[in-house]
Every structure is written in structure tokens, then in C-alpha cells.
Fold this sequence. Notes:
Helices cover 82% and strands 0% of the residues. The chain is mostly helical.
Amino acid sequence: MSEDVLEQLVRTVRERRLSTGEKSYTRHLLDGGVERCAKKLGEEAFEVVIAALAQSDEALKGEAADLIYHLIVLLEARDIPLDDVLAVLATRSGRSGHDEKAGRASG
């Protein structure tokens, strides 16, 4: 189910980017370019932290959903497919986080 939801969200964001019709919130963000999308992602990340520390589980779930949405919008603004990000995660699967991070620092 989760993959289907993410795939549909990616398709919807792409459709909004390519649409010439009525403006949507997604299109508004994308029209603002990478800077606007990145700023909004940062705001959402901060809201996730606040929710994690001081709000209910439901609030955290909602903020986490917003964060994922805004990450997908930012990736779209940069023309980076979500599948490319998932491929990076797949290469890290089964590796110690400490080892993986050390490998990035030396590369």
C-alpha cells in the first residue's frame, strides 16, 4: 500500500507541474523554483521536530505526511526521480549506519 500511495503522489506532483490549467498549491511551489520548494521543506522539517517533541502521535503523523509531500515536490523541482532516492536507500540496506556515513565522509 505505501508504495502505491507514494507512486500516486509522485504522479500527481508531476501532473501538476506539467498542467497548464488551474493553478494548484503544488504548481505554486514548483513555479517558485527550487528555492521556494527547499524553504518550504525546511519549514515542514521543523514542524515535524516540534510535533515529535511536544504534540500527539496524530499531529506527528500529519506533519510527517506534509514533510514527505514537500520532499517529493522538491525532488520534482530538481528533476530527481523518487526512484533514484529509493535506489540510494537500497544500496544502504543491510549496512551499519556508522559504516555508511564513514564511507560518505571519505568519498
